[in-house]
Design brief:
This protein is an alpha+beta fold and 224 residues long. The protein has helices at 9-13, 16-26, 35-46, 62-65, 124-135, 175-184, 192-205, 211-223, and strands spanning 55-59, 73-90, 101-119, 141-150, 153-162, 186-187, 190-191. The chain is 36% helix and 29% strand. A hairpin with a 2-residue loop joins strand 6 and strand 7.
């Protein structure tokens, strides 16, 4: 039985999350990325910023309500070319092998509104290492540097898009099927239902609306 684990700054920094991932890897539920891969892809992302620039991180899912990093500023950001979708299958976070769940990722097409965090350049490598040890632990995500539209002009930011070649990519499920999975799935890190509603609550707090998520919420309430 996989024990309960919360994603916090402490569980990432202490290595508790990594130990959890190593344990589930032994069970064949994940193939972890290497420290060298994480370091290389992190440095590649950072290299898109001048050495004097602070680093921006674009949040669209759990990073909205649980960033677990130190930042100087938040801005509302609008990303074009990608949309937020429950398209990442999980059997170890908010799901199990017997009842897989779904998590959010950026998929191609459309647009997505979220939050951009400004991280001081002096601590950016340390803070982004935490992010990488949370988001880039397997081949499910691809780190990207994207352009956001904000109220004060364009902004360059790091974010994470789905790797469509990864076996955990669910493809384009219907809204009803997505809601069915979300309504029943939970795992060591909580339920998919809570993940959905926490994301909506944080978007609402900042005056942002995602009609797709709101529709899913209505369908999930019907099914639970």
């Amino acid at each position: 039985m996989i024990k309960r684990l919360e994603i916090t700054r402490d569980t990432i920094e202490s290595g508790q999350l990594e130990k959890f991932l190593a344990n589930v890897e032994k069970q064949g539920l994940i193939t972890r990325s290497s420290p060298e891969y994480r370091k290389r892809t992190r440095e590649q992302a950072i290299s898109h910023f001048n050495q004097s620039e602070d680093i921006w991180l674009f949040a669209y899912g759990s990073l909205l309500w649980n960033p677990a990093i130190t930042y100087k500023e938040i801005r509302l950001g609008h990303l074009f070319g990608f949309h937020r979708r429950f398209c990442l299958k999980t059997v170890l976070g908010r799901g199990t092998p017997e009842c897989p769940g779904l998590m959010l990722a950026l998929d191609h097409g459309g647009s997505c509104k979220g939050l951009a965090y400004r991280i001081s350049r002096e601590i950016a490598d340390k803070e982004l290492k935490l992010v990488w040890n949370r988001e880039m632990v397997s081949s499910s995500y691809i780190a990207k540097v994207v352009q956001l539209r904000t109220e004060v002009g364009p902004l360059k930011a790091i974010t994470f898009a789905i790797n469509r070649k990864d076996k955990k990519y669910s493809g384009r499920l219907s809204a009803n099927e997505t809601a069915r999975v979300i309504s029943r799935s939970q795992g060591p890190m909580g339920s998919c239902r809570d993940y959905l509603f926490k994301t909506i609550d944080k978007l609402t707090e900042h005056g942002l609306v995602d009609s797709h998520l709101n529709n899913l919420a209505k369908l999930v309430k019907i099914q639970t």
